[in-house]
Amino acid sequence: MPKSTLQPFLAACVLLVSAPLMAQTVTDVPLSDAAVRTKPAAQAAAQTAAKAASEAAKRLPTAEEIAAERARLERMRAALAAERAALEQYKADLVKRQQEAAAKAKAEADAKAAADAKAVGSAASIPPPAKDDPVSVKNLSPEELQRQRQLAIERAKAIEKAVAAQKAADAKKKAAAATPQTTSPKDKDVAAMKLRRITHDKVRYVHLRDVAVNYGLTFAYTKNKANKISGAVIYDKTRKAVFSATYRDGIVNGVQVYFLYPMLLKNNEPYISEVDFLTCLDPLLRYKTPVKLGMKTIMVDAGHGGSDPGAMNGQHKEKVYTLQIAKRLQTQLEKLGFRVIMTRTGDTYPTLQDRAALCKKYKPDLYISIHCNSSTNKTPAGIETYRAVPVGGTETKGSKVKTEKQSANEFDANSSRLAFEMQKGLLAATGAADRGTRHQAIYVIGNATCPAVLLEVGYLSNEAELKKIASPEYQNKIVSGILAGLAGYGSFLR
Ligand SMILES: [Zn+2]
After folding, report:
1. Is residue 292 part of a domain?
2. What is the pTM of this model?
3. Fewer beta carbons under 10 A from the terminal one: N or C of the chain?
């Protein structure tokens, strides 16, 4: 068949195939603008094709040409069907994604509504479907299909963009929440602080309101039932120190802390002793130590031993439990990569001077002495952490002011933070009563050559606490409390 006669024939065949579809387009689907515009064009095409078909009929095509043409038309039909199926699938996916995005946005918006009114990516940020969005695309013309498809692609892009924006916003928020300390305020140098000072009863004091200002804390008085000033509190979102105008014990970040002197009220103004400020309070308020010290080598001192049983309750001896806990601690510390030096590993009694000499010889970074408490009264229970008495201060259970400096006094500030972290870690791990961080003239910690603490991990004279201390489970809790304390102290060093 010559080319000139084949063309009209093909046009007629196309018309035969597509005419029923066009008829359905205009009858089954509500008329959109596009459908209305295509109607006269389709009619004109039908007339032209019919005319061409009558002319083509004068010369009949061969059987092969007809077969080939039929096959081609079948392929076109199949391609069109595949196109429609793909579009249906696309639409189904799109609806699913829209629903998922809307559900996700709603859930997140609900969850954050109270905390954050400006939640990003709420359902409103996803574009609504176009008004002429067809319920079914089965009977649309190819042009309309193409138009709908383009709309669908644009909407899908908009949705993807909104979802991506939401994800990015969520990730940013999550990251900000996970790293709260990266931008902690920089600690001021104590020497650069402007603090009003006075002397009272031969003791130097600093103005507590000035202290608060220098650490960015809020100051407030505390009052008793008679509405008289009982003490003071300085605080911000993460730090809080409570002082008593009567007693030496205060509370710092939830842990009982014995200061060296009570808060002083003079001319209706609040003061704390300068030695308390420098060796007790400052190390607990600041984020990082200004003193560069390590914590790689740790000396673990099991209290008493050999001829010295320590405290006793019936057959229970302090020396046995201090060694058991010390050995458990040694195992865990070595697992974590610390170098551990034990003052004793068996039932022997190195004298206090021997132990101090070991510290001087091996120069550990930290010294931790483990003891159990005892009282003639069976009631007391709980944990205490001791550190050396700073020069100019007094023992927690005494009033004599210390005048002679010991080797450990070089490390008063770090020992204070170490004691605080140990007490905090031990209380959290054991649930024991908080008897506070204290100061006492204890030979081994006063003569240490590094930050040093002595832990009284519980009362053997209290039957319930004795039972716990004798158990491996509780001893492990004590060890994990010490490890938590070391972790806290480590963050102070970095
Ligand atoms: Zn002891």
Report:
1. no
2. 0.65
3. C
